[in-house]
Amino acid sequence: MSGFRDLKLLFTIYYLLFLFTFHFLLLTVHYQMSGIAGIFNRDGRDVDPDLLARMTNAIAYRGPDGTGKWIGSRIGFGHQMLATTPESLHENQPLCDDTGNLCLTFDGRIDNQKELKASLKTQGIALRTNTDAEMVLAAYTCWGTACPSRILGDFAFAIWDSRKQQLFCARDILGIRPFYYYTDTRTFLFASELQQLLKIPSVPREPNEGMIGEYLVSAVSNKKETLYKGIFRLPPAHFLIITEHRVHMERYWDIDPSQQIRYRSDEEYAAHFLDIFKKAVHCRMRTHGRVGAQLSGGLDSSSVSCVAQSLINTGAVSKNGFETFSLVFPGWGCDESEYIEAVKQKWNIKSNPMPLAVRKRSWYEAQVDRYLDIPDYPNGSMSDAMEELAREKGFRVMLTGLGGDEWFTGNEYRYADLLKQLKIQTFIRHARQDRDVTSLLPIPSNPLWRWALKPFIPVAVQRGLRRLKNGRNRFTWINPAFSRSIGLPNRLRKDIDWHTFSSFAQAAHYTNSTSGFQTHAIEMEERSASSFGIELRHPFHDRRLLEFGMALPEAQRFRNNQKKFVLRRAMGHYLPESVLRRYDKAEFSQIFIEAFQSQGGEFLTDSLTIADMGWVDGNEIRRMYQQIKKPDRKNDEEYHKDVWSLWHVFGIELWFNAVFNQGNLSKTSTGQK
What we know:
Elements (H helix, E strand, L loop, with lengths): L1 H27 L6 E7 L7 H9 L9 E5 L3 E6 L14 E2 L5 E9 L2 H10 L9 H12 L3 H4 L2 E9 L4 E6 L8 E4 L3 E5 L2 H4 L11 H8 L14 E3 L4 E5 L4 E5 L14 H18 L6 E5 L4 H15 L9 E6 L8 H11 L2 E6 L5 H11 L6 H4 L2 H9 L2 E5 L4 H5 L5 H7 L3 H10 L13 H7 L5 H12 L9 H7 L1 H5 L11 H10 L2 H15 L4 E3 L5 H9 L2 H4 E2 L2 E2 L1 H6 L6 H4 L8 H11 L9 H4 L5 H11 L8 H24 L1 H8 L4
Parallel strand pairs: 13-14, 13-16, 14-15, 16-17
Antiparallel strand pairs: 1-3, 1-9, 2-3, 4-5, 5-6, 6-7, 7-11, 8-9, 8-10, 11-12, 18-19
């Protein structure tokens, strides 16, 4: 019997050791959303299975639920699966149709499944399964290159059409799912991450100084280029057709500026908004697991959290253990704990407040090594703690409030509309109520007159004035010779098409909300959250909702010094009164200062390799860093620009040293890990 007891004890020890090891792996491995990869040999060569495996395996952390590869004649696809919807549990990719003529690799989610399925049925298309991938393949069969415009949701995909001997690739309207590619006369490569492409020896590593310049002035404008020459992103709302002889890119969707929504009462606008908003939240709660929400305490994230809980309470979606995750900053001016608590109390939501965790330099270096790209921003990486907790608790889907600012805040160029309509008294009244307007004097430094007069100045005159202004080198930390060599002023030029839209405010609103920096910010959010196996879903970025927002009269976005007027009206019964009447926003520049100090403070500005490259002025960078440490500068408009620009200098320095100047990396990193 003693031998049996010893054997039983030994078995118990091994079993506990197994459980501990398994739990440890769950806590330490980094998962990401599904990922795709592909090789199309345009010159007819067979695909090298080892190269395809290299690209696919480079994102193994994106596919905890399965890996798939498919190789046809001169074409090969790879796929890494993270299942987040009920249908995806039965999905196998890459996916071919019954004829074998079409094959798909798909990273994404369809939010209009019911409507899309009905449309396909009327066209005589019978689906084999209800998976999203199956519907995308059927949509291409039915509508060809028009299929992306029929799909609501977040996606990036590629379809090989053997009958036409062409590759078709598409990306969602806001670029929420990533898509990178490289092409030459022999080969076309695509991937979910830039670093996958660099696994292929034939892909050159050459810095793209034009894009580097945009980063260094904190004004990323281009939606296609990357930090590498020849490696591109597929811009949002575009598709690619690649054949043996050509690569053709085309936009498949855009805002219709002629669309207008006009009602007699504010209540009708609010009811219309609420109807779409509830649908946008509802369809993003489709999952086989638990859904959480990022809750900052602001108007947007609070609206998402409250509506999500209301849908659960009414039985519209299943009770799956909904919880919110929040960052709190006790003692800081940006702490929003009281608003988070108010939402929690009103809806009895399980809340998970988390303190700020400032990342060390070694963490940012590890990011550059992994992605071969610029590291995260401090106001993005600060969310890591709550996303890590969400993963540990079994969440794979997180709702956010991103998009509320872009589509419903309103735009300062409403002043130009008031002048155009000769509503002078209203113009003066609004200006006096506006917190951002400090004077009515018509002087160039007064932003009010930029918002009021700029749209009336002919574009040619604006460009001439801009050339005079550019001659003064407003980016003092940028080497003037470098700026001229890359044509930096022209790269940053943003001419708004005032005449296409129904109002000046709508034109500026569209331009700002679809800017290159917005695309970049979305991509960085996806990359940051996905490293913890969290799929971010953004109800405010629902196409139906943003089309509604763009068609509204400006008075529904901004009225009586209230931003997001229609949102506040619609959320009257959902939000706590303190959140509903909140008009300020938290300001997080202090997080950047903390991050700079954790990286080494002044040390960061010493011996900059990118200064030696002739890109920046090292002395000016050091002066800027000393300036941002002064507490009296936080209300200075230029302060925030300097903080962001300095972080981009730090990020580009890390990236360049890691990728192109590895011998110098140890010097810049000494003593900082």
